[in-house]
Amino acid sequence: MTRFVTLEVADGVGTIRLDRPKLNPLNIAMQDQLHEVADEAAARADVRAVVIYGGERAFAAGADIKEMQDMSYTDMVARGGALQDAFTAVARIPKPVVAAITGYALGGGCELALCADVRIAADNAKLGQPEIMLGVIPGAGGTQRLPRLIGPSKAKDLIFTGRMVDAEEALRIGLVDRVLPAEEVYPAALAWAGKLAAGPSWALRAAKEAIDRGLETDLDTGLTIERAHFAGLFATEDRTIGMRSFVEEGPGKAKFN
After folding, report:
1. Model pTM greater than 0.85?
2. Of 215, 202, 114, 128, whose CA–CA distance to 165 is shortest?
3. Catalytic option among 56, 131, 216, 237
4. Which of 67, 111, 168, 209 is catalytic?
5. Which of 34, 76, 89, 176 is a Cys-bridge partner for 119, taking CB atoms 3.0 to 4.6 Å apart?
6. Residues 6+ apart with CB under 8 A from 122
């Protein structure tokens, strides 16, 4: 089978690379490979942070509509779970994840970017959820992750109208976190991931899970989740290294394994 999604690892950073010409349309094979690669990134000890990148031309311009056009209701009932599971596998990678967005991130491409912890966009980026123009709605998490990120009113505007937003508006509404010239996006994402790859992996894992799980529940339950992770870190080498370094050398000098 042709590989459209690969994992490249260097210096603790794994790059999940999308590569299906011309604009990385997310067909079924690509979705399944994304799930497979996300699971691999989650499991590999030599991957401590992750970058998702679609190349210079586009992050991902959406689903493969030609493939989807002939699918029936029962086809999509059978396929919908696997589609969402692929994206959830990315969202559940227990390590810091950054999306490096150049060009189009539409439909499924935007939904994939939503699965990252941080989004760095090129000044030429275009993002949106145009599914309404096809007579459907987002099906890979867009109706759930987008309002959690930018609020329900802004999410409804994008989903109801199907309009694209440019990088400036995406930054203003909180859909992306940084905007850079296109040639600087991937290097900046690698730098962000590289810095965290050298950090305390168990503490970062706990912080991500506490935040993500806490957002799914009420405040009291979220505090219980936080308390459990906080206490659990006292059994890790991260805590031993970090606190010993602080006492002996001062703040910010710890070198984690």
Report:
1. yes
2. 128
3. 131
4. 111
5. 176
6. 101, 102, 103, 167, 179, 180, 181, 182, 185
- Tokens 């690509």 identify what position? 30
Q: Which residue has the tokens 């109706």?
A: 143
Residue 203 to residue 232: CA distance in whole angstroms: 10
Start-end of H helices in the chain: 28-43, 65-68, 73-91, 108-114, 142-150, 152-161, 167-173, 182-197, 201-215, 219-232, 237-249
Average pLDDT of the residues of the chain = 96
Contacts of 74 (CB under 8 A, 6+ apart): none
The verdict on whether 249 is a catalytic residue reads: no
3-state secondary structure of 245: helix
131 is catalytic: yes
User: What per-residue confidence (pLDDT) applies to 185?
Assistant: 98
Averaged pLDDT for residues 252-256:
92
